[in-house]
Design brief:
The chain is an alpha+beta fold. Among the domains are: 12-80, no CATH class; 84-247, Gyrase A, domain 2 (2-Layer Sandwich), CATH 3.30.1360.170; 278-333, no CATH class. It is 51% helix and 11% strand. It is built from 21 helices and seven strands. The strands form two sheets. The chain has a four-stranded antiparallel β-sheet. The longest helix has 29 residues, at 132-160. The two termini are 41 Å apart.
């Protein structure tokens, strides 16, 4: 056995500095890794020799990549080339589109921990439509209230948590609680930044999809992202232009949907389990037996169906006996699914969308769904002022929507809601619960996740026997075992 380090990501400024100091004229590109790995299946040479060949002959490596990725269709080769991207000065609304790409990594500036200044994006289409003054005045009003709200929420949070406040180490955490509630007043136009890690295959897809969106900011993002990366790995990124499929499909589906009857009252519970795998515990038990035996699945399903409640519970306890709060449950639990319809605030959705292994389909923000008002805002007696901000924001939204239906959401607040369809398997629900049902989770997504878990447990109690937040895991483990 021989394990060799083939490469790792380092800062681009350092790459350029090293290249300048060394006088190296040859391109430094991740394409050589892709080219070398693409040849593994058909070459007798060792991998390190293939890498050396690719580095020595970059042009040849690029030609090989083009042939393998685009002519032969082996797109996975492009996944070996990875980029780290600084994304600066984008809106919270655009971040929702960027982070739809599930096979990438993102770390975003948090409105829970950072006190935002008055920076926000003014969309080009809003300025061009003569709506800039209305937009800016509305967002500045929101921002002014946000800072006032934080100023009042901070002492309230410290007063409500005197024991924690007595320890200076908790100062940042308590201030964060005040920030995370104040942020419900600021808009989706709020400027933010994130770090993104993406491979060349997903980069190409992101460029194409975002260039097809009706938001000018999304199209500009696509252009700038392409400009920043196109010279680094040209052999792996080709199809970057919006296609009719990307541009027209959703537009045409919206046109069909508009023909449906539109009820005046269009509300639903915040959390509703709408479908699940039938007889889920038996299905999950059969999967556990299948993975640990030589039997066909049909026989495993029959055996699981014949089990007494006691024996089935013993089987699941065997699967969970040595589980710790940081462990992922067995992959067998991915075979049973749940589908929820959720109504969630923008603030909550910003966290929910991070669970990208689930299938998340979100509608546009809809003021008819109401808003989420933090309990702390009510406690300090600022609900009336908060709702005044909401109503004035919705007035601006309606004026913008008349001319620019896709850009109107920029002016809505983090308190505004959207309807979401979320499908996830039991294993992913365990992950969601560990993070979001935990006492340290933000209250909005914690309440949502608790309701999801409560409803899910009714249909698969054995499968979800150990599902809980990290903080309550030791107590649950003691109770079960």
């Amino acid at each position: 056995m021989n394990i060799l380090l083939a490469g790792y990501n380092i800062d681009y400024d350092l790459i350029r500095e090293l290249q300048e100091k060394s006088g190296l004229k040859q391109d430094i590109t991740p394409e050589t890794i892709s080219a070398a790995y693409a040849r593994i299946s058909r070459s007798p040479k060792s991998v390190d020799e293939l890498r050396a060949d690719a580095v020595a002959y970059v042009d040849k490596a690029r030609k090989s990549n083009r042939n393998i990725v685009f002519e032969m269709g082996h797109s996975s080769v492009a996944e070996h080339a990875v980029f780290n991207i600084d994304v600066i000065g984008v809106s919270r609304l655009l971040v929702e589109e960027i982070e739809k790409f599930r096979l990438c990594s993102y770390t975003e500036k948090s409105q829970r921990y950072v006190l935002f200044d008055k920076d926000f994006v003014v969309p080009d289409e809003i300025a061009e439509a003569g709506l800039k003054n209305l937009f800016v005045e509305t967002v500045q009003m929101q921002n002014d209230f946000y800072h006032q709200l934080y100023g009042e929420l901070r002492p309230y949070v410290f007063e409500q948590n005197k024991e924690l406040a007595g320890n200076p180490a908790n100062k940042s955490m308590l201030e964060g609680w005040a920030k995370e509630d104040a942020r419900y007043a600021i808009s989706l136009a709020t400027e933010t930044q994130l770090g993104m890690t993406i491979n060349a295959r997903n980069l190409e897809l992101m460029l194409r999809r975002l260039s097809a969106l009706p938001l000018a900011e999304a199209r500009l993002f696509s252009e700038k992202l392409y400009a920043a990366t196109k010279d680094i790995a040209p052999s792996l990124i080709r199809y970057t232009e919006a296609t009719d499929y990307d541009r027209l499909t959703r537009r045409n589906l919206r046109a069909v949907a508009k023909k449906l009857p539109q009820p005046k009252v269009n509300k639903s519970p915040d959390v509703r389990l709408i479908s699940e795998t039938g007889d889920a515990d038996t299905q999950a038990a059969a999967c556990l037996l299948f993975a640990s035996s030589g039997l066909s699945f049909d026989l495993c399903l029959k055996q699981a169906g014949k089990m007494s409640v006691r024996d089935a519970k013993a089987l699941f306890k065997t699967a969970f006996e040595y589980l710790q709060s940081y462990d992922a449950v067995l992959r067998e639990l991915e075979n049973v699914h749940l589908q929820f319809e959720l109504v969630t605030s923008a603030s909550c959705f910003a966290q929910l969308k991070r669970h990208r292994m689930a299938t998340i389909i979100a509608q546009d923000y809809d003021p008819q769904l109401g808003v989420t008002v933090p309990p702390s805002v009510r406690a300090i007696g600022r609900q009336k002022e908060f709702m005044d901000i909401v109503h004035r924001s919705e007035d601006a939204y309606c004026q913008i929507q008349d001319k620019l239906p896709f850009a109107a959401a920029y002016v809505l607040t983090n308190a505004h809601r959207k309807r979401v369809l979320m499908k996830l398997n039991a294993r992913e629900l365990y992950h969601l619960s560990r993070l979001r049902v935990d006492a340290h989770a933000q209250w909005d997504i914690r309440e949502l996740s608790e309701k999801m878990l409560k409803q899910a447990r009714k249909v698969m109690p054995l499968t979800l026997m150990m599902a809980c937040g990290k903080d309550s895991f030791p107590a649950l483990q003691k109770k079960v075992f």
